[in-house]
Request: fold
Amino acid sequence: MPPEKDWRAPLDEAGDDALQYSDIAIGYLGRNAGYRSDYRRALGRVKRGAISADDATAGLVRRWGISYHAAPGAAFDRKLAVARPDLSPASIIIAPALAGIGAGPLDMEALGDIRAQIRMGDFLHVILADPDGDEHLCVCGSCRRPMAVMLPIEPDPLARLASAERLCRRLSGMAAGPPALRPPPFRREHLLTLLQVLDGRRAGASQRELAASLIHPKVRRYTPTKWTDSAERKCIRRWLKEAVELRDGGYIRLLRGG
Reply:
């Protein structure tokens, strides 16, 4: 995984106003030991030429729901993380249109700056670079045929509809605007703090050191009894429990903005 640094330092993505829930979700999964082991094996197979980076990525995404692209030259790049379209309403699904509805082909040149195109089984996963937050298209079939945006019947279709509206604005020559699944500032700060909790715990920091670094330095001056009864100790224990749950599967909820 990426080179480790002092867990007390702000995370690299902390100042990124375009940060989406999917960007944070891959941060939690990237700290999961099982995923890290799978990803290292996948990278090794790609380096040996036993499998393509796209096929390796597809396998990781099927198992984990989201993954970094397993290309050795771009390993651990959050901007190249891809998610299963059924789990991520930020993914815009484009498929062949029914005959007779007046649809046209998808003009790839009209999409603007394409960050990456990743073949995953029947889908071509296209990542569109956007300063307000990248867009992800899952294209099934040939773009030269009449194509349509697919909006699956699902419990909460509004986020996927908002993603589709961003694409429509882009194709009309307008600014796409901010994505729907972008955490508000307080939620973003909390989720990034929990990532630091995981990093600190992995580095061997005690609960008291976590609290002193992430809540308030006065904790270091507490007597043992005061620390045991303190609100900071209760808070850091809650944060640890929440962070571990997100790392070990709860990150899937983040893909839906949960």
The longest helix spans residues 231-255. The chain has a mean pLDDT of 93. The beta strands are 66-67, 82-83, 91-96, 114-120, 123-128, 135-140, 147-150. The two ends are 25 Å apart (CA to CA).
